[in-house]
Design goal:
Helix content: 25-40%
Protein name: Biotin carboxylase
Number of helices: 15
Bound molecules: adenosine-5'-diphosphate
Structural class: alpha+beta
Strand content: 25-35%
Domain ATP-grasp: 120-316
Number of strands: 22
Distance between the termini: 51 Å
Domain Biotin carboxylation: 1-444
Subunit structure: Acetyl-CoA carboxylase is a heterohexamer of biotin carboxyl carrier protein, biotin carboxylase and the two subunits of carboxyl transferase in a 2:2 complex.
Catalytic activity: N(6)-biotinyl-L-lysyl-[protein] + hydrogencarbonate + ATP = N(6)-carboxybiotinyl-L-lysyl-[protein] + ADP + phosphate + H(+)
Amino acid sequence: MFDKILIANRGEIALRVIRACREMGIASVAVHSTADADAMHVLMADESVCIGPPPSGQSYLSMPAIISACEITGAQAVHPGYGFLSENAGFVQMLEDHDITFIGPRAEHIRIMGDKITAKDTMKALGVPCVPGSEGGVNDVDEAVKVAAEIGYPVIIKATAGGGGRGMKVAQDEKGLEVAFRTARAEAKAAFGNPDVYIEKYLQKPRHIEVQVFGDGKGRAVHLGERDCSLQRRHQKVLEEAPGPIITPEERARIGKVCSDAVAKIGYAGAGTIEFLYEDGEFYFIEMNTRLQVEHPVTEAIFGVDLVRQQILVAAGQEMEFSQDDLTIRGHAIEVRINAEKLPNFAPSPGKITQYHSPGGLGVRVDSALYDGYSIPPYYDSLIGKLIVHGRDRPEALARLDRALGELIVDGVETTTQLFRDLLQEPDIQSGNYSIHWLERWLEQRY
Ligand code: ADP
């Protein structure tokens, strides 16, 4: 087992990894920008190294700085968290060249899944059902018109290098297709340095259902059920729950097996998420994320497992601690993302926390790097905490969520807390009846 792990991240996910390290008797190293000198992950880790100025490009994304920090501190492995360098195959390669272990899958798998066209081709070949669409990329408008006519409108044009909900454009008909195609390419080029796009059928009222998988890198893999992440704003998740309110045990077993077989076959190592759109009883693959997800705690809650611990074990060449038969679901869990943002338009609201009180009690977990007097810097994303509740069933989880939200105090900045309290009053949320478009429509009417 490793003696020391460096966490190439900040905020709540850095704490999450430090906590797992501590329980495993492994020393932790935090890295930070000058803007984060007094951040919680720095205070909580056993050691810390400043790796650069505030902009992430010069600190949290600086591979040479992170590798130097490993060498200075003698860290044998790096946990990337999510975002930043977590899905950067070049980083994995560079670590390997320096004999440092990356806690995650092999560079090859990150590369395949990082390009959505290749990812879809690979998954299709592995027997995973995909959204109908173009065979590979689409290079010009004429080809786009042809493909769209075949699959039928509306269609969505997506960047192969896409992420974070960017570079996607919907076209309702042939008239709108040309503009959508050109804007998607331009946006993709600007955001990802790669203009390549592909086309998919635009599903009308799907749910976003994602399957958690875990592989040992040697051909054994399991699935840990699904999460429903349909409540989204601008294609970004806002609330996640597990199990999915409308997924039956039979559907779970079926799609779960398809997913675990697929990752077992490629020898995938560590945690991964296979994302689907789900409509009328059918699953359609959209992408795979080769990292721990923000919403992993809902899965941990219902299965009673520590996914970060398993990631570390597998990276160290040890066995994961469960097989498929050991994994049974207990109860229902919901996570909400508390952002430092001002409603109604979700404008970032950085600043000093004058008072912070975290909820507690039975079935409540708070993953947050906030503390009294902490100043949220303006340079990074606005997620300041995740509130996760676990109940014996969905109604209990909902009631617990409302109770816990009522206990949360974050003064000094604006937060999205009230949004969730309002949402919990909605009959559709109470019954679990929502598609990926529900939240945007509700926000338009409400705020
Ligand atoms: P990103 O990598 O940018 O997150 P995804 O491919 O995961 O992009 O898609 C993000 C979200 O965009 C999905 O959860 C869904 O809400 C919407 N979306 C993507 N593809 C389609 C589609 N074919 N039809 C309808 N909505 C889609």
